[in-house]
Write a structure and sequence with these properties.
This protein is mainly β. The chain has strands at 3-8, 17-22, 25-32, 35-40, 54-56, 59-61, 68-70, 76-78, 81-82, 85-86, 94-95, 97-100, 103-107. The strands form four sheets. The chain has a four-stranded antiparallel β-sheet with strand order 2-3-4-11, with no helix packed on it. The chain has a four-stranded antiparallel β-sheet with strand order 5-6-7-8, with no helix packed on it. The radius of gyration is 14 Å and the shape is elongated.
């Protein structure tokens, strides 16, 4: 699969998220502990835009219903919560990221 150049390392600050659209796929590029991660941008529960959610300590929270995902693995940390209901969701897709000569590329 091809790698797509997205940004330079200096373009993304620590704990910052940046959304991108690549070949019809919506992803978020995240810098966390001086590494770069790429994760699917739409929540697996009801397609909330994760780039508009909160990011803290490696966890991204969906702004719609509060699902939480580990950006390093894509694993669900907590499913959506609506009132007293706790619903299920699935893991997010993560993409391989390479950094070479200060250029960040993602495999799609």
């Amino acid at each position: 699969m091809p790698f797509f150049k997205l940004a330079k390392t200096g373009d993304i600050a620590e704990s910052q998220m940046k959304p991108f659209d690549i070949n019809g796929k919506e992803i978020i590029l995240i810098r966390y502990k001086d590494k770069y991660y790429a994760i699917n941008r739409r929540c697996t529960h009801m397609q909330g835009d994760l780039s508009k959610g909160e990011f803290s300590d490696g966890i991204i929270t969906c702004p719609k219903h509060g699902s939480k995902f580990d950006v390093t693995t894509g694993k669900v940390v907590r499913g959506p919560k609506i009132g007293f209901l706790k619903l299920k969701t699935t893991d997010e897709t993560v993409y391989e990221v390479k950094v070479k000569d200060d250029i960040i590329s993602v495999e799609m």
